[in-house]
Write a structure and sequence with these properties.
This protein is of the alpha+beta class. It has three helices and 13 strands, in the order H-E-E-E-H-E-E-H-E-E-E-E-E-E-E-E. The longest helix has about 55 residues.
């Protein structure tokens, strides 16, 4: 009995391979650009999100900084801007409550003003400020030198709490050693700077492009630099240790104008940042107005 065998001939197999190759080529031509655009859009979205995070973080630190504390600092690592962000603050009593003090002769029960031109060891605040033991207290700093001179400031001897009577204020600020209140200062404002944080600096290190078209720089946020330690010098960022704000930095410039144009008691900080991945760029330029009124 003769048996039949079924299969593909070599010609049929070659035809199928050719047709499949043509179809694959058509798919590549039409779908690869769309796929590449998808990945490019994804990269741009991630870079945009990172740039937005930089803007928000830096803007917040600059805006809450002690007046006259924002500055451009010298650094061998790249552009650097320093500042002294406050965690709290408020208003204080500038004169005695004579009627109250006459009725309450005990020293601990009397009102505690911070009178301009005097040195104070304690004063009453009229706002609900918050502060912990060893935090710094700053009052009426008129310029950059005032801010970074330790002798002008005080440190809390205990967490901020209420005075003996609510009619005296909301908080009593007690200092480890007496501090001066600048003569002629009528702003009646004080600022609290956390002891653990002190000076904060942003450093753009090693900005540029690598061989793959990725930004090679890193934007660091350094904190914990002592208030009186080399005020015009930027602290050093250590890779793997210092907190990173952004990577893939291909270009970065930071500037600060203490008094732009006719604007008084204010400054202008400007940041120009470019993030790059696989030759896709996102450039961010933003400005922050700095309140320098003490």
């Amino acid at each position: 009995m003769k048996s039949s065998q079924y299969g593909f001939t070599l010609v049929e197999l070659i035809v199928v391979m050719v047709v499949t190759g043509i179809l694959a080529g058509i798919l590549v031509v039409f779908f690869m650009p769309a796929l590449n655009n998808y990945f490019a859009s994804s990269r741009r979205a991630m870079l945009t999100d990172a740039a937005d995070g930089v803007m928000r973080r830096m803007s917040r630190d600059i805006r809450i900084s002690v007046p006259n504390s924002v500055d451009i600092r010298s650094s061998s690592q790249g552009p650097c801007i320093g500042m002294l962000p406050s965690s709290s603050g408020g208003r204080f009593r500038t004169d005695r409550d004579v009627a109250w003090d006459n009725a309450h002769p005990a020293a601990a029960d009397q009102s505690k003003p911070a009178t301009p031109g005097m040195t104070v060891a304690a004063f009453d605040a009229t706002t609900a400020a918050e502060g912990a033991q060893n935090d710094w207290i700053l009052i009426g700093n008129q310029n950059y030198s005032d801010v970074y001179t330790v002798a002008n400031h005080g440190r809390l001897s205990a967490d901020l709490g209420p005075p003996p009577d609510p009619r005296l204020g909301i908080r009593r600020v007690t200092l480890q050693t007496p501090m001066p209140v600048p003569r002629g200062y009528d702003g009646a404002r004080f600022f609290v700077v956390p002891a653990a944080q002190q000076v904060v600096a942003y450093i753009c290190s090693n900005a540029g492009l690598d061989a793959k078209g990725n930004g090679s720089g890193i934007l660091y946020r350094v904190w914990g630099h002592a208030i009186g330690a080399a005020p015009l010098t930027c602290p050093t960022a250590t890779q793997g240790v210092t907190p990173v704000v952004a990577t893939k930095v291909s270009a970065c410039s930071i500037s600060f104008t203490p008094n732009p144009g006719a604007t008084q008691l204010s400054g202008l900080a400007e940041v120009d940042l470019t993030l790059t991945e696989a030759n896709e760029n996102v450039r961010l330029h933003f400005s922050v107005i700095v309140d320098n009124a003490p």
